[in-house]
Amino acid sequence: MTCKSPKFLELYGYDLLLGSIAAFYVFMVPYTKVEESFNVQAMHDILYHRHHLENYDHLEFPGVVPRSFIGALLVSILAYPIILAMNLLKLPRIYSLLAVRLVLGCIILSTLRFFRIQVRNKFGHHVEAFFVILIALQFHMLFYCTRPLPNILALGLVNLAYGFWLKGSFYAALKCLIFGTLIFRCDMVLLLCPLGLQLLLNKSISLWKALKCCIATAVLCIGLTMLIDTIMWKKLVWPEFEVFWFNSVLNRSSEWGTHPFHWYFTSALPRSLLAAYPLFMLGVLLDRRILSYIIPVFFFVLLYSKLPHKELRFIISSVPMFNLSASIAANRIYNNRKKSFWNLLYFIMVGLLFISLGFTILTFVASYDNYPSGYALKELHQIGRLANNTNELWVHIDPFSAMNGISRFCENDIPWRYSKEEGIALGEFYRRNFTYLINEHSDIDGFKCLFNVNGFSKARPQIGFPPILLVKEPKSKNEYAYAF
């Protein structure tokens, strides 16, 4: 047993470390937001409504553009035995949300493991160790890897593509990126094209064989998504084509806000990479081998910068490769730390790692307070039965609340009922038979406010410790619970 334990840790120790941090984020921040709502509701409906499509949430609330069910189906199938056991134990549905998120995290971290193994084979064990350290100290990769966003589903395929790329299986890498592009995120074409072009210029692949490979894979992917999603949406649909048309051709995504061209390089990447941001640039200078891997990923971010609407999650697929370059630089600095100039770089690097840890803790605390309606509904469930003796407890959830922490997984069974009916004027609520309201407004006629939950508003620098103060304000992200 003593011999097997070190061997197990040698094989899976890094996975346990990263998995533990990701699981901690799941249990501490279980709720989801509007960006995740389609896949969250889809997984709930697949697990609880199964073949009764008429009860599915997306038919009542379809969203701006359709998304593919393939990712939700995969996660739901893998999570089903766990959910079945939970149902037999009559556990609340919120535990099912934890289960599906943990399953998704296992999928994404498994693909990251594949990439990490190729990093070890090509660059050595020490580079692999620094790769894990950097990811563990960063917030966004492990926080997002359990969140059912289309970007994260695509990230799993990008990790596989990176692994095959390092391994020398170039056609397999192209297939993974085509699958991710046509089914989960059409914008992955911005990574597929620079990578494919570089492989052609390097004569790593032949044009004719690449065309045959890509066309065959594309036909299979389009056929798969149209078959499954046409059934689920009850209409002929290729979801990612509609997303492409909406975001790129019509440029409607800018309606959700815009950022300047440089935002990914001056805000998103520094926040997601932290200490790895300066290190990845140094890695390109220290090891020529990494340059050919960084160039296509850099152009991916550069091309994406042309779209006015920007979010950090859109470029999260670039983080693993940038971390690899940073790990090479960290390893070189560590190996030469006894030399005078390198010793200075070593102390700077250690300081940056501690700063990364502090920033990650602050970001986690802010994220913890970023789902106010989820906490509001949880508290309402705790006091609801004590405060009301009627047989049925009917809760109305306004759109703001539905976007900031509440999903079908948060609902309880009878006697609780829920409504997400939109367009009800504030003066009309008292005419309905709602027992409770969860609403963003601070005063509603005919209802008594039971409590309010403040959400994270902003970070403010201050003199003293901690140097950054996280502010929660009722005028920003705030939830009120009312009783009739």
From TrEMBL:
<feature type="transmembrane region" description="Helical">
    <location>
        <begin position="152"/>
        <end position="171"/>
    </location>
</feature>
<comment type="pathway">
    <text>Protein modification; protein glycosylation.</text>
</comment>
<comment type="function">
    <text>Mannosyltransferase that operates in the biosynthetic pathway of dolichol-linked oligosaccharides, the glycan precursors employed in protein asparagine (N)-glycosylation. The assembly of dolichol-linked oligosaccharides begins on the cytosolic side of the endoplasmic reticulum membrane and finishes in its lumen. The sequential addition of sugars to dolichol pyrophosphate produces dolichol-linked oligosaccharides containing fourteen sugars, including two GlcNAcs, nine mannoses and three glucoses.</text>
</comment>
<dbReference type="GO" id="GO:0005789">
    <property type="term" value="C:endoplasmic reticulum membrane"/>
</dbReference>
<keyword id="KW-0256">Endoplasmic reticulum</keyword>
<feature type="transmembrane region" description="Helical">
    <location>
        <begin position="313"/>
        <end position="334"/>
    </location>
</feature>
<feature type="transmembrane region" description="Helical">
    <location>
        <begin position="213"/>
        <end position="233"/>
    </location>
</feature>
<feature type="transmembrane region" description="Helical">
    <location>
        <begin position="96"/>
        <end position="115"/>
    </location>
</feature>
<keyword id="KW-0328">Glycosyltransferase</keyword>
<dbReference type="GO" id="GO:0006487">
    <property type="term" value="P:protein N-linked glycosylation"/>
</dbReference>
<keyword id="KW-0812">Transmembrane</keyword>
<dbReference type="InterPro" id="IPR005599">
    <property type="entry name" value="GPI_mannosylTrfase"/>
</dbReference>
<keyword id="KW-0808">Transferase</keyword>
<keyword id="KW-1133">Transmembrane helix</keyword>
<feature type="transmembrane region" description="Helical">
    <location>
        <begin position="261"/>
        <end position="283"/>
    </location>
</feature>
<feature type="transmembrane region" description="Helical">
    <location>
        <begin position="290"/>
        <end position="307"/>
    </location>
</feature>
<dbReference type="GO" id="GO:0052917">
    <property type="term" value="F:dol-P-Man:Man(7)GlcNAc(2)-PP-Dol alpha-1,6-mannosyltransferase activity"/>
</dbReference>
<dbReference type="Pfam" id="PF03901">
    <property type="entry name" value="Glyco_transf_22"/>
</dbReference>
<comment type="similarity">
    <text>Belongs to the glycosyltransferase 22 family.</text>
</comment>
<feature type="transmembrane region" description="Helical">
    <location>
        <begin position="127"/>
        <end position="145"/>
    </location>
</feature>
<feature type="transmembrane region" description="Helical">
    <location>
        <begin position="69"/>
        <end position="89"/>
    </location>
</feature>
<feature type="transmembrane region" description="Helical">
    <location>
        <begin position="12"/>
        <end position="31"/>
    </location>
</feature>
<protein>
    <recommendedName>
        <fullName>Mannosyltransferase</fullName>
        <ecNumber>2.4.1.-</ecNumber>
    </recommendedName>
</protein>
<keyword id="KW-0472">Membrane</keyword>
<feature type="transmembrane region" description="Helical">
    <location>
        <begin position="177"/>
        <end position="201"/>
    </location>
</feature>
<feature type="transmembrane region" description="Helical">
    <location>
        <begin position="346"/>
        <end position="368"/>
    </location>
</feature>
